[in-house]
Structure formats: structure tokens, C-alpha cells
């Protein structure tokens, strides 16, 4: 039997720990006797030809000294045209002609949709039906992938946000101010909820919970103020937004000086935490194990703390469940 060849790419928003997952795929693949290729700049790399800029064969040392690096050494990109079937065919043809029959896609659920489309693209090559086996590995700081209770990058992003808000608290406290801080999470309030609890935020606004400014912000600040507190932190998820207007409203309504801070992309960078390095290593390894068993259209996930895998269709049909219990705990104790 000919030597198996697989490839790996990172796609969508980068996340700390993507390098650890990439490293695990390369090392696990080589240890199982496979050729392993790195594809640069997500799905774009598949569309722009067989050059060193787009694809390179990896060896054990190609991934040395990267486990602690933020960002992604494979670079990442968004590639709108990959949604077109003719473009997916071109990508499948490129991989198959290079002898690559397995692909690990590290990214979010958009990237998984691309992986599903690619693996469902069957080509007739010299009378033989061929396709590329694809496996998804969840990598995004938002933790917004329904099928997995954890996504690579989340822990690092939360800890970065935590450190930043702790600093903001120092200055808010010194001035008796209210600081309104926006953290990332376009559709998902997990970063806001977790960091909000960890910094003792007086109010936390997330896209999953319908809010009312008077009830969920103003009344909470007033109640806390009455017990002697003179500075306040309000954590707002990006999906709720409006932090500058909210700070102005708090100032006008309560006469408390307020400042707004948008943390932004600082949360996407930095050296991955131990948790992200370890989970990424486990998930990358699992993806290679699946390809080694000729499995396709699966997503590596964490369920009940264990690394396992799910059918990609089932995974993409799942709906995220927001942790309301944790939200209620936060609302009760952050006063
Ligand atoms: P994430 O993977 O973080 O969710 P995006 O939603 O931006 O990020 O998706 C990343 C990339 O995945 C897109 O730029 C596109 O190349 C590919 N992609 C997303 N949705 C689809 C789809 N329905 N079909 C094919 N490719 C897709
Ligand atoms: O990685 C996820 C995320 O950080 C979202 O929270 C945010 O909305 C988005 O990516 C921004 O990504 P970009 O600036 O790369 O478009």
C-alpha cells in the first residue's frame, strides 16, 4: 500500500493553541508513517497553486519551538469563494493530484462547513471515484461551537481578558469610576460570562440573555453602591456591543464617572495557556488517528472533559446551550 499523505490548515479567526494543534498533527502523522503537508492561509492555499507559498511538506523539526507561540504559523484567512462548488472541486483536484487524501481543518464552524463541502466533493479521476477525507478540529477563542464544550484558544483569551480587566479595575477603583468593558464574542457570551465572574463584574451582558438596561445594569449598580462600593465593572460581550453609549448613559443617569474600553484583538494573541496547549495537542492527535482509520467527515470534540469525535453533519446541526446556571450564579454573587 502506498504511503498515506495528509494535510493540515488553519482557517477563520486565529486562536492561541492553533500552533500546538498543527504541531500535534504533524508529529502524530509522521509517527504513523504518513507524509504531512502544511497548507498556508486556510482554503486560499488550496486554490492558488502548487508552490512553497501555499503548501509545504513538514518534518518533525518544522514544528519545533511553536507550541508556545500565539497566532498560527500556517497563517489563516477567510475565503468567501470557497463556498462555491466549482472552487471546492478545484481544491479537491489539487489535493488528490498531489496524492493527499486526508485534510485536518483547524477552525470554527464556518471552516467545518468548508471541510464538509470538500469531503463531499467526489471526483472521477481515470475512472476511479476519489474524494478527500476531512476532519475538523475546533479552534476559536469564542467557544461558540455547539458540538464541543471547549474550543482551542478559549482559555488563553479568557485569561488575557481577565488580566486586562484587572488592570482596568485598578484605575476604576482609584477614581471611583464605572468601567464598561467589551470582550470578544460576536454570537457567544462565554468570554464575557467567565471573565465577568472572575473579575466580580457588577453587571454582565451577553447575547444569549435578553437584557434591560435599567434592571440589569442601573439597578445593580445602585444596589451595590448602597452597600458601600464605589467603583464598578460592567462586562459586555461584543455581540451586545454599545459600550460607549452605555458608559455615557451610566454617567448621565447615575452621576458616576464612566469609561468604556473595547479590548478587541488583544484577546486573540499571546502565548497559549497550558490548557490550550494540552487540549490542542490531544485534538490534533485525535484527528490524525481518525484519518489513519480512513474515517471522514468527523469533528473532534470535547464532551464531558474527554476528547472524542462526532459526525460533521450532526455536529453542525447542534445548537449551543448557554450556561444559564453559571449566569444565575454570577448575578447572585456579583453584588
Ligand atoms: P470560522 O471557521 O472561525 O467560523 P468563518 O465563518 O469566517 O470562520 O469561516 C472560515 C472559512 O470557512 C470561510 O472564509 C470560508 O472559506 C469557509 N466556509 C465558511 N462557510 C462555508 C460554507 N458554507 N461552505 C464552504 N466553505 C465555507
Ligand atoms: O475569533 C472570533 C472573533 O474574535 C469574534 O469574537 C470576532 O467578532 C471576530 O473573531 C473578529 O474577527 P476579525 O477581526 O478577524 O474579522
CATH class group of the largest domain: Alpha Beta
Tell me, rounded to a whole number, the average pLDDT: 97
Helix content: 40-55%
Order of helical and strand elements: EHEHEHEHEEEHEHEHEHEHEEHH
- Indicate the structural class: alpha/beta
- The dominant shape is elongated
Radius of gyration: 22 Å
**Which strands sit side by side, in order, in the main sheet?**
3-2-1-4-7-12-13
Q: How many strand units? A: 13
Q: Specify the CATH architecture of the largest domain.
A: 3-Layer(aba) Sandwich
Bound molecules: adenosine-5'-diphosphate, 6-O-phosphono-beta-D-fructofuranose
End-to-end C-alpha gap: 65 Å
Q: What name is given to the CATH topology of the largest domain?
A: Rossmann fold
Compute the number of structural domains. 2
Q: Describe the biggest sheet?
A: 7 strands, mixed
As residue ranges, the low-confidence spans are: none
Number of alpha- plus pi-helical segments: 11
Query: How big a fraction of the residues is strand?
Result: 15-25%
